[in-house]
Task: inverse folding
């Protein structure tokens, strides 16, 4: 169903996606309950990633103009999630975002722009509030 899946992958009930074939998951992945990935474009998820419950990862958006929305037009951009990432519960990741390696996204955050490696990001919109130690090679 998915584009690719590494080893030691667990996805809880209920998992929803648009296509599935555009989702690429690395090793040691946990996707908690009620994970939704709208994969009109590709979603790349690295190794050692944990995603909390009720999280939405969406590659798709719609035009800001009424004319475009009335036509039900969609626009999509890839999402990249690095290695050693923890995304808390009730997080939304918007189209085109790259989340670096060794990143923690706090519960309830809305990720609207790229988050650099070794960062703790929280809030709406998500902002980096702390640099994280990288304790593995």
Result:
């Amino acid at each position: 169903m998915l584009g690719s899946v590494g080893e030691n992958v667990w996805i809880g009930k209920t998992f929803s996606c648009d296509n599935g074939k555009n989702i690429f998951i690395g090793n040691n992945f946990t996707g908690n309950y009620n994970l939704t990935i709208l994969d009109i474009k590709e979603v790349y998820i690295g190794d050692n990633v944990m995603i909390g419950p009720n999280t939405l990862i969406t590659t798709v958006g719609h035009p800001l103009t009424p004319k475009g929305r009335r036509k039900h037009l969609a626009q999509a951009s890839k999402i990249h999630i690095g290695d050693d990432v923890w995304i808390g519960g009730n997080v939304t990741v918007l189209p085109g975002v790259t989340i670096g390696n060794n990143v923690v996204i706090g519960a309830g955050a809305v990720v609207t722009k790229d988050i650099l490696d070794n960062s703790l990001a929280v809030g709406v919109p998500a902002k980096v509030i702390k640099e994280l130690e990288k304790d593995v090679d």
In short: The first strand starts at residue 4 and ends at 5. The chain has a mean pLDDT of 97. The longest helix spans residues 66-70.
